[in-house]
Amino acid sequence: MPSKGTRIAAQRPPYLRDLAQGLERFFEPRREDCPWCSGRDLRRRLRTTDLIQRKPGSFTLEQCHGCGHVFQNPRLNAQGLEFYYRDCYDGLNERAMERLASSRICRKLYRARARALVPFGRPSRWLDVGTGHGHFCSEARSIHPTTRFHGLDRGEGVEIAARTGRITHAYQGSFTDLSGQLAGRYDVVSMHHYLEHTIDPRRELAAARTALRPGGHLLIEVPDPQCLSARLLGRWWVPWLQPQHLHLIPLRNLRGALEQHDFTIKAVDRREPHVPTDLVAAALNLLNSALPGEDLPWLPAAPGRISRLTRALAYLSAAPLLLALFGLDTLLAPLARRTRLSNAYRVVACRN
């Protein structure tokens, strides 16, 4: 395989051609009402940039004063989503995402999600929507050894998940488009940090109801935009994840939507889904935004020697602080899980 530097150089011309046409074409017109409740009392929650990939552009999250829904406005269109997702989970960053998904913290979170379904029986078929490379399914098999795990995602990672044996069947494409052929086939549908990426979360809930058999369970985990961490850390709070997160849904709104789609809420958990990385991740966001960029294909040219050295020395100098913040996140996790600092919530619902 060619080196990363060679791949970056090869992708620079197409990225620069995209950027030369302007960023405005990546956005829909700004909407004047809330996509959740149609309320018109909208307030800016924050304005930020792509803090992870550092692709150019700025993005606004607005909040509905009536229902509390937080959404990207103006929202990326299909072209924009393709541009900003490119090389994030696959391509250039595939190996980095593979390492993250295989980390001890992620594996612990995966097992906790799988255990959330234990009180509701042993499912025969489980569809994980937004499965990526299938790491959740691989870990969940240790909790549900007789379950057949299938995965669905838009990216090529789902095919990798099937080839590596993490899932037994792969669906590549849109869940809302594929749900008809999956009707009534599954005992469980899971959506872990998936709904916030979707254009229309309500359509995704309808698709989940279609794919589930009567009495089947839907497992959802999403960031909590009402948590105290989001307010304290502002634009550096990682779960804002602009420009990929299009909707951040308060628990009350999600509960109401599930009931409208003929689900019965069986369990709600704000404790266990908390991801104990808020402080260290915010610090990394801040550091990454302040330093010269690394070699990226959407930059006009590769950074010079001084820029690369400055970046390397800054990360080396910051390493003790980052380790301390990681330790503090871990130390504070029991407190965070019992307070409004918890940064995510989980819902288990049964299809009627």
UniProtKB/TrEMBL annotation:
This is Class I SAM-dependent methyltransferase. Its EC number is 2.1.1.-. One of its GO terms (molecular function) is methyltransferase activity. GO terms for biological process: methylation. Pfam families: Methyltransf_23. The chain crosses the membrane at residues 312-336. CDD domains: AdoMet_MTases. Gene3D superfamilies: Vaccinia Virus protein VP39 (3.40.50.150). Keywords: Membrane, Methyltransferase, Transferase, Transmembrane, Transmembrane helix.
